[in-house]
Write a structure and sequence with these properties.
alpha/beta, Rossmann fold, 5 domains, six-stranded mixed β-sheet, 33 helices, CoA-bd, Succinyl-CoA synthetase, alpha subunit, succinate-CoA ligase (GDP-forming) activity
């Protein structure tokens, strides 16, 4: 059976997940397992592995999908425990690191403002966009990612060239800048050799041999395997070569390439002959017969390294470089008819081995069969790093599984006489590959007499795995180990009775044309002559290695923009080019900051909202009909009808409300807001808040207190009587008290004071309610011509109602956002609201248009006797508080409420506020939060940031029972649905002329 579990919004890079998959597969009871992100490409891999079901199908790209095949469903719990332990270990490693981790590109740039390289190791489908973003920010790109289209590579490399930058890759597995390792790299001694290579393992083989020969390398620029293709035209190699030629600490230049296009090869060779420094060049697969001038052509990577060291030491190049085999005196002989099998983790090393074997044994051309470099007459050389073996699995440099299986297979083949292996050391590779392969090698040699293993170790003594240790483990097993891949192949041929004897290679004068050297850019010179300053997006271990070797690095915890939605990514990319959006948003934000909400009065709603003079009710959220209302909102409507005297009984009210005679209007459409159901009728008293800065006014009904209340759908006699008391007593007394103040009550002052006292203004308003009481109580007591009991009841009600200020805050928030909405530009959210069916937002540039998505159910704490099954979908205009930057956005301000709303403890509240800060355009200095190091509340939710990150606003909320009349059953938090922000982004893109059609 297939059992599946989803970890929502839990992104990990592919290498971590591959290793986690290996770990999960060891759990008892697991027949097979796969852990991947829920991208479309990965879903195909789940299908291929027969681990696909409806749960996998519905996963989002930012969801981690754990799928297992097991005979027992209980095994899934063990697997998830293993997953959690693995992720916890990763977290501990992060905490013990001194790395700075950031969540967005802009944060990365801010954290390392003088960064000059983006190291990109993310899924290839997203890499082109990130390369372009780096180039647009004037940064070089080192691209470990593969599966970037050739069209994108050509376009981006041309763009980089025009900007004086380098795109190193894609599929550049290794590099070294100013002796700092990048990606899967060995630790090489610094020296006077500079290298440019279109081959990752080719660079590793050459540099490690140079190191072991006593030489050193200052730069090794990987350009990607296709750089010398006809389409790309060696753009990066040519730019890097011209810069190295001017680098004072480079005396010798090495160029390495897989087989290039002939026209490109000729162009590169012309460039090599134009350089002022001696050059060693190898075009893998070619067998040069001579050196030309100062350009020395090598046949093997070992020869390349030896030539470079001689030149670096000021010595002349020798005519031959075939040194004696370490194991030349072995008496091992392979019987006639036996063949060589090569199992390589390095594609270039596999190609080199295949070339040497095919030449020596006259086997003809190399194989074009996928995964093989040679497959002729029983001789096979495999590139286990080929895409066919690594899709959804770790590279064989990391994980021995594929090679172990092939060792068993080849050992069981009676025709196999020799198995060739490479063991590649360095950062990123398996911590002890020799030990990992040991059991399989021992078993094969014990069970198959005469079978011989020959290996080469690509590494140095300073690599984390230590060259000598690795070599000793292999030799102790009886493996014959040679100093280079070429020598390992030669040894295999030698024990078969076939020796390679190279012809001497003379040096002749170069009589061909030279190329005009382009002037290298200052940016490339800076790259090659200073320690790299890296924004690392993807594999986190790359960052720590850079820092260990003297570079600077910030770890960008990359996730696919817009959850991997290609349409939305294209829109975001286009919007990134529009610098004016930031200026527009700043103007909108400035309106928020400069708003001056003043509480001016409390009046009957119909006196300031003309629409209520007819038979109408205001409701929370986007527009909706009676039939679409949830039960609590309908209950609130029933209570309002009874309060207004439109009906005498519940049945009469239901009949009236369903008849179409009553008009339902969103509060937001008439400058108002209302909590929970938001139901406001003509004679209900409302706060009148004027935004003095922008001369607009907003309204909100008054808070009823706790218990059975209209806003939660209760409509019994107690509820209706309280509403009448508020209309007849509370409202008029507060109106008189407020009018006694000189200019009304300055709400900014109340808010600023209360936020320093632990309020966040949605679930906690204790301080603000007390400050409000402090302002009005003395005035109420002093009022003349007012019944003393009424005054006492009013003051007592205010003292008892901890949440009284919430409705004042809501009116203030509405006044603030409507003042900002006067500026119709930018991407700032100016309304968050929900009606129990839909969550709706409005955006600064798009005016009154609503963008909706199905509302979510709150998660939180429930009163005794209730559970999530009792909760109503989220409802209310009170998210106006989050719209202006408080409520859930400022969770950290109210540690006392965090557990009540289900946020855990203070650290959780801090994490929420930090997360909300990522999706806003600024902070409000007027509302400084002491528990946030006096940082201003996050302000200005930006739809671009929400869609890009997938992080949606979190809202503190009360939870109503799903049945009318039962009132509040808990409190918690709810996330705004991403869908409404995505719709808004598409509409905004259309409004600024961006094509939004799917490709």
């Amino acid at each position: 059976m297939i059992y599946t579990r989803i970890k929502e919004n839990s992104y990990q890079d592919s290498i971590n997940l591959m290793l986690l998959t290996n770990s999960v597969n060891t759990v008892d009871g697991v027949n097979s397992a796969q852990v991947m992100m829920g991208t479309d490409a990965n879903k195909d891999l789940f299908k291929d592995a027969d681990l696909y079901n409806d749960v996998v199908a519905n996963a989002e790209p930012n969801d981690m999908v754990v799928a297992i095949d097991s005979d027992d469903e209980a095994v899934l719990d063990k697997v998830m425990e293993e997953v959690e332990n693995y992720l916890s270990d990763l977290s501990v490693k992060k905490d013990s690191d001194s790395l700075e981790n950031v969540a967005t590109w802009s944060e990365a740039v801010d954290a390392l403002p003088d960064s000059n390289v983006a190291l990109i190791s993310i899924p290839g489908i997203y890499a082109a966009d990130e390369i372009e973003r780096a180039l647009d920010a004037d940064k070089h790109a080192f691209v470990f990612s593969d599966n970037v289209s050739i069209e994108d590579e050509v376009r981006l490399k041309k763009k980089a060239h025009e900007k004086g930058l380098l795109v190193m890759g894609p599929d550049s597995g290794t590099g070294m800048i100013s002796s700092v390792p990048l990606a899967f790299t060995n630790v090489i001694k610094p020296g006077n050799i500079g290298m440019v290579g279109a081959s990752g393992t080719g660079i590793q083989e050459a540099t490690t041999i140079i190191d072991r020969l006593g030489g050193g390398v200052v730069n090794a620029v990987g350009v990607g395997g296709r750089d010398l293709s006809e389409e790309v035209g060696a753009i990066t190699m040519l730019d890097a070569l011209s810069a190295m030629d001017q680098q004072a600490d480079v005396d010798v230049i090495v160029a390495i390439s897989k087989p290039p296009a002939k026209a490109v090869r000729d162009k590169v060779v012309a460039m090599l002959h134009s350089l002022s420094k001696p050059v060693v060049a190898i075009f893998l697969g070619e067998k040069p017969e001579q050196n030309e001038g100062d350009v020395h052509f090598a046949y093997t990577l070992e020869e390349t390294a030896r030539m470079a060291v001689d030149l670096a030491n000021g010595e002349k190049v020798k005519e031959t470089y075939q040194t004696e085999l370490t194991n030349a005196d072995t008496d091992i002989k392979i019987p006639e008819g036996k063949t060589v099998k090569g199992l390589y983790s390095g594609g270039t090393l596999a190609s080199e081995a295949a070339t040497l074997i095919a030449e020596a044994l006259e086997l003809g051309k190399l194989s074009k069969e996928e995964g093989y470099k040679l497959k002729t007459n029983g001789f096979e050389v495999m590139d286990l790093g080929d895409d066919m073996y690594t899709q959804g699995k770790p590279h064989p440099m990391i994980d021995p599984e594929v090679r172990i299986n092939k060792i068993k297979e080849y050992a069981a083949d009676d025709n196999t006489g020799v198995i060739l292996l490479d063991v590649v050391l360095g950062y990123g590779s398996h911590p002890d590959m020799a030990e990992a392969l040991k059991p399989a090698i021992e078993e094969a040699m014990n069970n198959h007499e005469g079978l011989q293993f020959i290996a080469t170790v690509v590494g140095t003594q300073n690599d984390p795995q230590e060259y000598d240790h690795t070599r000793q483990v292999l030799e102790d097993l009886g493996v014959l180990v040679e100093d280079s891949n070429a020598k390992a192949v030669r040894l295999a041929l030698h024990i078969m009775g076939k020796d390679l004897a190279p012809a001497p290679k003379p040096t002749v004068d170069y009589k061909g044309e030279k190329a005009a050297l382009p002037e290298p850019s200052e940016k490339v010179i800076d790259l090659l002559t200073t320690k790299p300053r890296v924004i690392n997006m993807g594999v986190e271990s790359f960052s720590s290695v850079i820092k260990k070797h003297g570079g600077e690095a910030v770890q960008y915890d990359w996730r696919p923009r817009a959850g991997g939605n290609q349409k939305l990514i294209r829109i975001l990319n286009e919007l990134d080019k529009m610098d004016e959006i930031e200026e527009q948003n700043e103007r909108v934000i400035d309106r928020f900051k400069k708003s001056a909400p003043i509480l001016k009065d409390v009046v009957p709603a119909y006196t300031v909202i003309p629409e209520l003079k007819e038979k109408a009710l205001l409701h929370a959220g986007p527009p909706m009909t009676w039939d679409d209302m949830t039960s609590p909102m309908k209950g609130s409507c029933i209570g309002a009808a009874l309060f207004e005297g439109w009906a005498e009984t519940e049945d009469e009210a239901m009949e009236l409300l369903g008849s179409g005679e009553v008009k339902f209007i969103p509060c937001h459409h008439v400058d108002a807001v209302g909590p929970m159901g938001g139901i406001t009728s003509a004679n209900m008293p409302v706060f009148v808040v004027k935004n003095r800065t922008n001369d607009n006014t907003a309204y909100c009904q008054m808070n009823e207190g706790i218990g059975a209340v209209l806003r939660f759908g209760a409509y019994n006699e107690e509820v209706v009587n309280r509403l009448h008391w508020m209309k007849d007593v509370l409202g008029p007394i507060l109106s008189k008290a407020i009018k006694e103040t000189e200019n009304g009550i300055d709400l900014n002052v109340v808010i600023a004071r209360a936020i320093t006292m632990g309020d966040e203004f949605h679930q906690r308003n204790h301080a603000a309610s007390l400050i409000f009481l402090k302002e009005v109580a003395p005035i109420i007591v002093a009022l003349k011509d007012v019944d003393e009991k009424d005054k006492q009841d009013t003051v007592q009600f205010l003292a008892d109602t901890d949440q009284f200020f919430l409705n004042v805050m809501m009116a203030a928030g509405k006044a603030i956002v409507d003042g900002a909405r006067q500026v119709k530009e930018g991407t700032i959210v100016t309304t968050l609201s929900r009606n129990g069916k839909d969550f709706g937002i409005r955006v600064s540039a798009l005016g009154d248009e609503w963008f909706t998505a199905p509302v979510n159910n709150p998660k939180g704490l429930y009163f005794t006797g209730y559970s999530e099954e009792d909760g109503n979908p989220d409802v209310g205009d009170s998210a106006i508080t989050e719209t202006v930057g408080v409520g859930g956005m400022a969770m950290v301000a109210a540690p006392a409420v965090t557990r009540f709303v289900g946020a855990g403890g203070f650290q959780d509240a801090l994490d929420v506020s930090n997360e909300m800060d990522r999706i806003t355009a600024g902070n409000n200095p007027n509302w400084s939060i002491p528990t946030w190091d006096f940082k201003g509340a996050a302000l200005g939710i930006d739809i671009r940031k929400v869609v890009e990150t997938g992080v949606t606003p979190i809202i503190n909320t009360g939870i109503a029972h799903k049945e009318a009349g039962k009132g509040q059953v808990g409190a918690g938090t709810v996330r705004a649905p991403l869908g409404c922000f995505e719709k808004a982004l598409v509409a905004y893109a259309k409004s600024v002329g961006i094509s939004v059609e799917d490709e």
